[in-house]
Amino acid sequence: MTPDYLPFHPTPGKPDFSVPEGAVDAHCHVFGPEAVFPFAPERKYTPVDAPKEKLFALRDHLGFSRNVIVQATCHGSDNRALVDALAASNGKARGVAVVRPDVSNDELQELNRAGVRAVRFNFVKRLVDATPKDIYREIAERVVRHGWHIVVYFEAPDLEELKPFLLSLPGTLVVDHMGRPDVGAGTQAASFKSFQALMSENENIWVKVSCPERLTVAGPPYDDVVPFARTLVEAFPDRVLWGTDWPHPNMKSHMPDDGALVDVIPRIAPTPELQRALLVDNPMRLYWPEERETCS
Ligand code: 0GY
Question: Has this prediction a pTM greater than 0.90?
Answer without folding.
Answer: yes
